[in-house]
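Aim 2 progress update. The chain analyzed this quarter is reproduced below.
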Amino acid sequence: MTDPLITAPGAAEDAGRWVTARIGASGFHTDVAAGGHTVIVDEPTTLGGTSMGPTPYEYLLTALGGCTVMTLRLYADRKGWPLESASVHLRSGRSHERDCEKCDEHKVDIGMIERRIELSGPITDEQRRRLLEIADRCPVKQTLERGIRVETVGIPGTA
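Predicted structure tokens:
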């Protein structure tokens, strides 16, 4: 028998595209499966969680940071530029749990994400300037800035 956390609903060829999150009867500890990997999403103990994993907003920042440095690496490698490393530091200043306290009545959003980029290596000032421009081409950043519509589909027992 397969674990539905690992093999999400749908056709086998479609299963790899699903990310599945599962939470128990109490607390915020959530197991998430994506691409054959399992991670934990949680809230800090000060907000009723167990602090066993990053918060949902921290994972959003993780996606943006990861995509940004991968985009920088891809571009530098294509150009043959000597980028030794790139680091992206991000923060939102918002708590998912606090937003959820009022999400049934009010729209919530992060509003703004602060980003600091550090580039290391013997790159020229022009290369540095271009890499900072390329950081804005990260697909996750572009997606977040354009907005995303989320549709709930395939709910059992509904037409």
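The beta strands are 19-23, 30-34, 37-41, 85-91, 114-120. The radius of gyration is 19 Å. These observations will guide the mutagenesis experiments scheduled for the next reporting period.
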